[in-house]
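Record pair follows.
FIRST:
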Amino acid sequence: MAQDDETVELTPGTPEFEKMVFKLNQEVNAENLAILNYDGNELQQIEEGVYAQPAYVADDFNLFFIVTQLIEDDWIVAFSQATIENESDITDLSEPIPTGKGLNMLGNQSPDDANKLLQYFNTLSDANRGEWRLLQ
């Protein structure tokens, strides 16, 4: 039986899941930015075509959403880790982390928060706002 390459079900927490990214079905702009708000936070444009918002922040671990065109013209929701100084000044963001890998990293820190984030992505997917894709 041939398998459809577009729909891939992978289990969070597995090494294979680390290769998954969440692709948005439309570009991000001022009109649709609010649909991506998470947990009371909203995306902020940090440079042209790059948006960020906190996903999880604790003393010893943090994860920020990074929304940008990472793969050709596709808008991807990835993660980044930030350097936070003086408790609230974000001074540096890491290279983008694939969505699945970020969720696995968070799962090691806080499984409940990782599940909450996974539900957020599933809600976006159910609303036809985006879909999971396997990085090639």
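SECOND:
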Amino acid sequence: MPEPLPEPKGLPEPLPEPAVADLRLETVLGALSDPLRLLIVRKLLLESEEFDHTCGWFGLDRPKSSLTHHFRALREAGITRQRQYGLERRSHVRVADLNARFPGLLNLVAAWTPPEAD
């Protein structure tokens, strides 16, 4: 798994998220049980071009309301951190926090191979 990009200076405050001590394995695994959310996290881990990304960067052909739901589920589970930049939200994986609580979990996500599309 590649190293996460360093946090740039002057970022907006993150949206509400659980503290590291409050991250629960069953909540994280529940959020990752959805194949689309698993794909989002894997793409962030392996293909990030910047520190954080808008939902449009993922190239997902889903309604905006559906994507909003999935990104909120990831944030509320403590997997991603989101920040508001004007009208858009950008996300990145909380790598250090998740590695501290659940060593090896993100390596499994990164090693996961998505099924071929039919």
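COMMENT: The domain at 20-111 is CATH 1.10.10.10 (Arc Repressor Mutant, subunit A).
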